[in-house]
Amino acid sequence: MRTPMNLKLGSRKSALALWQTHHVADLLRAAHPGLSVEIVTMDTLGDQRTDVPLPSIGAKGLFTAELEEALATDAVDLAVHSLKDLPSTLPPGMRFAGAPKRASALDAFISTRYASFDQVPDGATIATGSQRRKAQLLHRRPNLNFADLRGNIGTRLEKLERQGFDGIIMAHAALERLEMDERVTSLLPPAEYVPAVGQGAIGLEAREGREEIDAILAPILDAPTMQAVTAERIFMRRLEGGCSVALGAYCVPADTPGQWTFHAWVSSPDGRQCLHEARTGDDPNALAHALVDDFLEQGARSILRA
Ligand SMILES: NCc1[nH]cc(CCC(=O)O)c1CC(=O)O
Questions:
Q1: Domains of the chain (ranges plus CATH)?
Q2: ipTM, 2 decimals?
Q3: Which regions form coiled coils (predicted)?
Q4: Atom of ligand 1 nearest to the CA of 156
């Protein structure tokens, strides 16, 4: 099979996006000595609108549309995203081309005032831009206050100090990748604080019709990661949940070999009405479908919109 000698990877410009794209480039070069890999960077709507909460912008694919435009015109061969930012239904002509090995999917609590999340008192203000994180925290701690938090990872850490929040919640993977792990105060247990679909994974996107790229990608993809995130994305697609609703799904290998545990969360924005269940079995996609069936029967769609 003929493969391009020069592969162009499209990336956002944030430190995390660039880290992830360089990571993919390194994996590809290691798998294919002699392959030339180039990184093309661009801004997305989500990067430009840092002033407003993401859900209020309303559009889907806030961090992906410009990269998809570049894929459509072959200006890039592959777009590298945080999988969490990649909608579960892609625009026509675009396809999910796989994921390398996932990093931590957990949420991290960061505070300069408290030694762990459990020590945060009622009335404290926690900053997060995520509906899911807010709802999950409110469910257990209805007397916490919340502030919106936007911007790239460095900006958010600055805001923690400058705006005097009692703590912020961020993806553990982002802090690990940017070598800011030592900023983590504590990790939220994923059985209780169910992570976002695809959190901690890098998602590769390609144009339909460029199937020759699959042979180049094959050696850098991770089968267990793809099984897990595929199931999580089924859960999200069937519930029509995006990042603007309180939906979580985390599929993880169980202690018994061959078994998977699927953690599922759907709630109202205030966390009061909530469907929360973990189920174990040998087929991640089947677990996702069974949980969606049960959640729909229990009114998941109206709970998400409550
Ligand atoms: N929603 C923004 C976003 N998209 C991906 C990450 C971090 C990396 C990841 O979750 O894989 C973040 C920041 C965060 O959730 O704190």
A1: 6-100+201-221 (3.40.190.10), 107-187 (3.40.190.10), 237-304 (3.30.160.40)
A2: 0.95
A3: none
A4: 16
